[in-house]
Amino acid sequence: MPDLLEVNRLSVRFDTPEGRILAVRDVSFSLAEGEVLAIVGESGCGKSVLCKAIARLLPKSAHVEAESILLDGVNLAGRSEREMCRLRGKLFSMVFQDPLTALDPTLPIGRQIAEAVTVHNRRLPRRAVERRVLELMDLVGMEQPQEKARMYPHQFSGGMRQRSAMAIALAASPRLLFADEPTTALDVTIQAQILDLLRDVQRKLHTSTVLVSHDLGVVARVADRVAVMYAGRIVETGTAEEVFYDPRHPYTWGLMRALPALAIEEGRPLSPIPGMPPTLLAPPRGDPFACRNEYALAIDYEQEPPLMRVSDTHWAATWLLDPRAPRISPPLGGIPHA
User: Fold this and answer.
1) Which residues constitute the domain of residue 98?
2) Are 184 and 159 in contact (CB under 8 A)?
3) For residues 111 and 133, what is the distance between their CA atoms, to the nearest angstrom?
4) Which residues fall within 8 angstroms of residue 135, CB to CB, at 6 or more apart?
5) Is residue 19 part of a domain?
6) Is residue 287 part of a domain?
7) Which of 99, 145, 241, 283 has its CA 20 to 30 A from that of 289?
């Protein structure tokens, strides 16, 4: 499949009173048409900043640098805000983490979806807009759409609000959908419904999706490929099967060991990753994960590892993949590891 999105050497920094924060560091990745890419990692690792940098939704204090950000043949790098306003919603769209703050509390849901429909097609007749609103509400699984179109966000449950936000994001049939932790504020049962809905919509509309999450268990349900981020950098990327069944970076091992389902299966307590992520005001020398990595080598404290090839689709930034490194077989329980 051809690549819909290709990001080359994207970096983001914030100038703050405390100093310069390197939130995203030299990130490159691609996304094929109709594919779901999950970006996972602890809070503060740069996942949401990465997506908002591509969509140009960061505050003025952010400085974004990139060789290129190609989306469906359009280079988003260097585009003016007026040009980006024409592209947002139509070429790409975003579903935010908290739908209650993303929705306008003073307007009925139907009117908010209608605004998203008409902003890219102002000449569409009123009845056609109304039909489109009902179609979108039906697409995201909202029963009795005519009745619910007259309701306000505060009258909806969290799951229904997230469905409403998805309907707005899909109003102009975007080629790419960013889903920024869309299930974080929902209970487990509703989380599963929203994830299944994301996958169903992606298949129906052939929309590519970038799903941001801190939970590997969540992304296992929908992802085709997974990119693991740490300290503003992608440290492992591969197909979902490769990352879940043959993880190669010690940070990915830690995330897997912290999965509740795996701990229950093995009959053991959760195994949290020791320590805390480093401050991005002054990233440590070498590998930022070294101080939390029980398998760290001496070179990890001196030199940051590049992404090393495991297979044509699987890469990991760890010196343990260097031919000179000792062979490590970490105890990953029920997860087979080569």
Assistant:
1) 3-106+176-193+204-321
2) no
3) 9
4) none
5) yes
6) yes
7) 241
> Number of folded domains in the chain?
1
CA angle 112, 113, 118 (to 5 degrees): 100
On whether the CB atoms of residues 58 and 49 are closer than 8 A, the answer is yes
Asked if residue 190 has pLDDT above 90, the reply is no
| 279 lies in some domain | yes
Distance CA 64, CA 60 (A): 10
* Residue 78 to residues 74, 81, 83, 100, 138, Cα–Cα distance (Å): 11, 9, 10, 32, 37
Other beta carbons within 10 angstroms of residue 100's beta carbon come to: 15
pLDDT of residue 335: 44
**CATH number of the CATH domain containing 306:** 3.40.50.300
What three-state secondary structure class fits 11?
Answer: strand
3-state secondary structure of 78: coil
pLDDT digits (tens, 9 = 90+) for 151-189: 999 999 989 999 999 999 999 999 999 999 888 777 878
Q: For residues 233 and 28, what is the distance between their CA atoms, to the nearest angstrom?
A: 9
Q: Which amino acid is at 329?
A: S
Using DSSP, how many helices (H) and how many strands (E) does the chain show?
A: 12, 13
DSSP 33: T
Are 153 and 104 in contact by the 8 Å Cβ rule? The answer is yes
Alpha carbon distance 96, 100 (integer Å) = 10
List, as one string, the DSSP characters of 181-218: STTTTS-HHHHHHHHHHHHHHHHHHT-EEEEEES-HHH
The answer to which of 36-45, 134-143, 194-203, 235-244 has the lowest mean pLDDT is: 194-203
Length of the chain, please?
A: 338
Cα–Cα distance for residue pair 175/69, rounded to 1 Å: 15
What would you report as the CA-atom Rg of the chain, rounded to the nearest whole angstrom?
Answer: 21
